[in-house]
Amino acid sequence: MPCRAPLLSLLLLLLGSVRASGAESSPHLPAPKDVMIYSYNFRSLLRWSPVEVDRGLVLYTVNYKTGAFNKWDEMNCTRITHTECSLPWSLKERRWTLVLRVRAELGQVTSDWVETDPFVAERNTTIGPPKVNSVTVSSDSLLISVTPPFGSEAGYSLQYHVSYWENASSSIKKEKKMSNTLFKIRNLKELTLYCFRIQVELLAHPDYQLLGLQSVPECYRTTISEASRVGYIVLIFVLVLLFVNLVAVGLLFLWRYHKKIKYWSQPPLQIPSHFEEYLKDPNTPVLEVLHSYAEDDPDNLSVVFCGEGSQARGSRVAGEAHSRSISSDSDIT
């Protein structure tokens, strides 16, 4: 008996260590994280972050329940490999309250379930902007055709909020509410650049509305009206006619007064200074200078006659020159 007691205690100690090591090595699978329902234009899906493991392929299973029936049911996402699950058409009712849950599976090992917050499509979906099909531009309006972001359903109506402004004064914006997919923005200025953007509002209940995202601004320039076009044509014609008349008057003036203009445009005639001195005082020795200059270069000598008085003085100058030439000849002989 004394020998069996130590052996028994040793056996119990070994069994305890084996159990402890088995408990530490037992597989534990973490639950998915970032579980969230994404909904855009009533197209909803569940997304989550993948579960990372060292070995094996992790699969995922999604269940749902509604607010009317507190019972979990399977969806079309059982043991799937990807990390998202689209809601089936059977759960597309916009007013239902849905709760989804997802878990990870690795072989026979499963993680804990992760549930979402209650989801109601008509309250929690994100409404996108409408699609602008066409814009017809005139001188004072823009005719806009749009397509709604999702199909219509009984009990719901859409309203379009249209904001528009002049591109030069973007701080001043105007807004209109339309219920049709074809509407017109009126009372615009011609030849002006206008920008607009559209936002959809879902009218689900009299006391509840869901406002969507705004579209990207689009800009268009209005055209010119027919009245303004005719006015511009008349103005251009009048300006051209006035220009032609001015040119004609200018040419007539030049033709009629061309002699006076020519007289005014010529510089005044001036008598050379040495002739002017001689005319003032005939006794000045200018002729001697001229005579010596004529002897040096007789080809360049020129005589200027200025009226009758000038002719008399010129004849007297010529006589003096002739007498001097005779005296010089007599000296030579």
Helices and strands, with pairings:
Blueprint: H1 4-24, E1 33-40, E2 43-49, E3 59-66, E4 73-74, E5 84-86, E6 97-106, E7 109-110, E8 114-115, E9 119-120, H2 121-124, E10 131-137, E11 142-147, E12 157-166, E13 174-178, E14 182-185, E15 193-205, E16 208-214, E17 218-221, H3 226-256, H4 258-265, H5 273-280, H6 286-296, H7 307-332
Antiparallel strand pairs: 1-2, 2-5, 3-4, 3-6, 6-7, 6-8, 6-9, 10-11, 11-14, 12-13, 12-15, 15-16, 15-17
Keywords: Membrane, Signal, Transmembrane, Transmembrane helix
Signal peptide: 1-20
Transmembrane segments: 230-255
Could you describe the 3D structure shown?
- With 333 residues, the chain is an alpha+beta fold.
- Among the domains are: 33-120, Immunoglobulin-like, CATH 2.60.40; 131-226, Sandwich (Immunoglobulin-like).
- Helices cover 33% and strands 30% of the residues.
- Strands 3, 4, 6, 7, 8 and 9 form a six-stranded antiparallel sheet that branches.
- Strand 12 (157-166) and strand 13 (174-178) form a beta hairpin.
- The longest helix has 31 residues, at 226-256.
- Mean pLDDT is 78; it is low at 1-26 and 304-333.
Q: Quick recap of the structure?
A:
The protein contains seven helices and 17 strands. The chain has helices spanning 4-24, 121-124, 226-256, 258-265, 273-280, 286-296, 307-332; strands at residues 33-40, 43-49, 59-66, 73-74, 84-86, 97-106, 109-110, 114-115, 119-120, 131-137, 142-147, 157-166, 174-178, 182-185, 193-205, 208-214, 218-221.
Approximately what portion of the residues adopt beta-strand conformation?
25-35%
Whole-angstrom Rg = 56 Å
**Can you tell me the CATH superfamily of the domain at 131-226?**
Immunoglobulins
N-to-C SSE string, H for helix and E for strand: HEEEEEEEEEHEEEEEEEEHHHHH
Oligomer: single chain
Summarize model confidence as the mean pLDDT: 78
Helix content: 25-40%
Gross CATH architecture of the domain at 131-226? Sandwich
Q: How many DSSP E strands?
A: 17
First-last Cα distance: 194 Å
CATH class of the domain at 131-226: Mainly Beta
Helical element count? Answer: 7
Q: Which class best fits the helix and strand makeup?
A: alpha+beta
